[in-house]
Amino acid sequence: MKVECYKCKKTIDLDRDLHVTLGTHNGKTTTQMLYFHWNCWRKHFEDKTREKAQNIVDGMQDRMMPIAKQMIGKLTDAIGSEKTYTIN
Ligand SMILES: [Zn+2]
Fold it and tell me: Taking all residues of the chain, what is their mean pLDDT, rounded to a whole number?
């Protein structure tokens, strides 16, 4: 049986080529079957992993920035009030 590789769009001979089959299941039936060459799968998986890692880093920056700004704001306030205190 021959199928198309999801990644490189080239033919996979399921009987001869090392491959990975990925089935999307909706709970009852398999709705979509994806086929990858083994090497394409590895590449695909590595890309996804990298993407995911990048998203986590981006998400962390998004979460950290307001906190960092808040801390800088508090620090500025503290310095400001200290100045006021010294002057008084
Ligand atoms: Zn392929």
Answer: 84
Pairing of strands 19-25, 30-37: antiparallel
Listed residue (31, 51, 38, 50) closest to 5, CA to CA: 38
Distance 27 CA to ligand 1 centre (A): 28
CB of 34 within 8 A of CB of 22? yes
First to last CA, the chain: 87
Average pLDDT over residues 47-55: 89
More confident residue, 47 or 75: 47
Using the mean position of ligand 1's atoms as its centre, give its distance from the Cα of residue 36 in Å. Answer: 5
